[in-house]
């Protein structure tokens, strides 16, 4: 084998090994146990003030994905989350993918999230954790999670944006 072919083969091998796998996988079903939350679980308001309410089923109908990622609120224990992509919810409600979102939790915790630097990061609105429906008593029914397992994100900046018991998203 000549030197150019050998170097090309080595480079091709290195490039293919260095590519990260997909951050998430698509799934088709949620935990449908009797104790899964019912009724409106999330309200989204666009910049014009128009609000749309979503049930757990409405959110699941956007399409479901899963990933296992370390959760900063659980001492970075890996958790398998399932839910729709935030980007799909934004598309459904007509909110730009680069908007700033005002996130409001059930306990009235609030934070603002600028999506511009997260344009290609698949944030998930988790409805399920480790195979169980998220309820109000365990960070649900909606929990905004970040794919720390697949993206090098500034944890000092984004740990506070992992909003559990998320009940409102408002475009700013």
The figure for the number of domains is: 1
Rg calculated over all Cα atoms: 18 Å
Shape: globular
In whole angstroms, how far apart are the ends?
A: 60 Å
Helix share, percent: 10-25%
Main beta-sheet strand count, sense and barrel state = 5 strands, antiparallel
Description:
- By secondary structure, this protein is an alpha+beta fold.
- The protein has a single domain, classed as Sulfite Oxidase, Chain A, domain 2 (Alpha-Beta Complex), CATH 3.90.420.
- Helices cover 20% and strands 33% of the residues.
- A five-stranded antiparallel sheet has the order 1-4-5-9-10. The protein has a five-stranded mixed sheet with strand order 3-2-12-6-7.
- The model is unreliable at 3-20 (pLDDT under 50).
Search tags:
4 helices; 5-stranded antiparallel beta sheet; Sulfite Oxidase, Chain A, domain 2; 20% helix; 33% strand; disordered N terminus; 5-stranded mixed beta sheet; 172 residues; alpha+beta; signal
Write the layout of secondary structure elements.
Elements: H1 3-18, E1 25-27, E2 40-45, E3 51-55, H2 56-61, E4 64-71, E5 77-83, H3 86-93, E6 100-105, E7 110-114, E8 124-126, E9 128-129, E10 132-133, E11 143-145, H4 155-158, E12 166-171
